[in-house]
Amino acid sequence: EDADSQRTAFLLRKQWSLYSVTPLYRFSEAHLRDYSRLLSAFIAAEKKKGLAVEIGGELDIKVAVTSLPDLKGSDRDQAAILVQLSSRSSASPKNSEEKLVWSGWFCCVAGDELSENLPEAFTCLPLFLVNGAESYTAIVGTWFQKTFDCCFRRLSLSPFNLSWMAAMWTGCKVEKPASATELVFSVPRLPHPLHISYAINLEDAQALWDTVQKTPGEITQEEVDVFMDCLYSHFYRHFKIHLSATKLVKVSTAVASAHCDGIIKFRQSQYLTGVLMLLTELAICQIQ
Amino acid sequence: HIATSLPLPSERDHLRPRIDMIVFMIDIKSKYSLKNVEDSLAHVDARFFLGKVCFLVTGVGRVNCCSVDMNAVWKLGENYCSPVLFCELELEGTRVATAQRLLRMLQICAGHVPGVSALYFSTLM
């Protein structure tokens, strides 16, 4: 268990942009080295065309495509695939250090809904997470789309999805000291944009959730609604503002943070798989 | 006549013309609007639910701004035996089409179309 957390520790506390990916055609875990080489060549070619211009001199990009065998739900899931781009100054390759400039990983946690009906030649990795410059994301995305005939789409998180995350993650037991649960709302139809940040002490939020949740390990839509309504009523009592008429744009808890533009930050390795399961489900919904 | 919630103020009861149809508008981006509609429904006479009520869900153009549980909306339509229509107010095409549709429904509810009664709308469910 500890070894697992160490291997995935680099995924924590980083901001990841989310994409949904359609199944990859003729992708094979046995050929990861080949993919590294091919992608490397592709990036070099794109650079020659002047498409990935890096400030600060010529940089050689090294590509590493590896598998993360522990990042999956069940054995029916395909193990996560990690793509990392590191740079090294081409002027003095032996002396300079390698620096990680871009990371992207494909994963699938409990993706049976999509994978069970797929023909043999397809690999199901519906969730893609990216950290790094948009220019590299575009190049890597293009290569994958060309090579495996798949399609990437930005995964946005609706206020409806975010409410679920707020309730679900508040219910998770975490070590103290833990950060407060914070909800950020955007108020529509105003001449100047207004954001309302509502922070709730974690213990209070958990106490509220404990009174709402009936069966441990199970969450219903009704329970999420009651939880959020209590928070909204409390706010209304103090500030006479109906938060339910605004747009929930960000949820921040000790477990993870999520933004409606499709950005996630993992904070606890013990809940990493759980959060990925939810995100996989949303990605699959977007694909279908 | 437009109202932000029901019941309508009683002071103007005697001046109000007969009400033939009620359209409840739910903004998919606002949970508050759903709650408002649910609270207002309690003030509607049962006879209206024989085809003279419909739910209009707006803001459906952008599904990633959805704050409302769609299952709750469908259930509302079922429980009150009234059709649920969808519209994106910001798009002129669908706005005009929806307005025409509502107008047609209103004509039927007001009894202006011979041979067609408002009870027909319950078959649209």
Give a description of the structure.
The complex is a heterodimer of chains A (about 290) and B (about 120). Chain A is of the alpha+beta class and about 290 residues long. Chain A folds into 2 domains: about 5-155, no CATH class; about 160-260, no CATH class. Chain A contains 8 helices and 13 strands. Chain A has helices spanning about 1-10, 30-50, 110-115, 135-150, 160-170, 200-210, 220-240, 270-285, and strands spanning about 15-20, 25, 60-70, 80-90, 100-105, 120-125, 125-130, 150-155, 180-185, 195-200, 245-250, 255-260, 265. In chain A, the strands form 2 sheets. In chain A, strands 1, 3, 4, 5, 7, 8, 9, 10, 11, 12 and 13 form an 11-stranded antiparallel beta sheet that branches. Chain A has a two-stranded antiparallel ribbon with strand order 2-6. The two termini of chain A are about 35 Å apart. Chain B has about 120 residues and is of the alpha/beta class. Chain B has one domain: P-loop containing nucleotide triphosphate hydrolases (Rossmann fold, 3-Layer(aba) Sandwich), CATH 3.40.50.300. Chain B is built from 3 helices and 3 strands, in the order βαβαβα. Chain B has helices at about 30-40, 70-80, 90-110; strands at about 20-25, 55-60, 85. In chain B, strands 1-2-3 form a 3-stranded parallel beta sheet, sandwiched between helices. The two termini of chain B are about 25 Å apart. The mean pLDDT of chain B is about 90. Classes of the chains: A alpha+beta (about 290), B alpha/beta (about 120). At the A-B interface, helix 5 and helix 7 of A face helix 1 of B. Chain B: It is found in: Chromosome, Centromere; Nucleus. Chain B: InterPro entries: Centromere_Cenp-M, P-loop_NTPase.
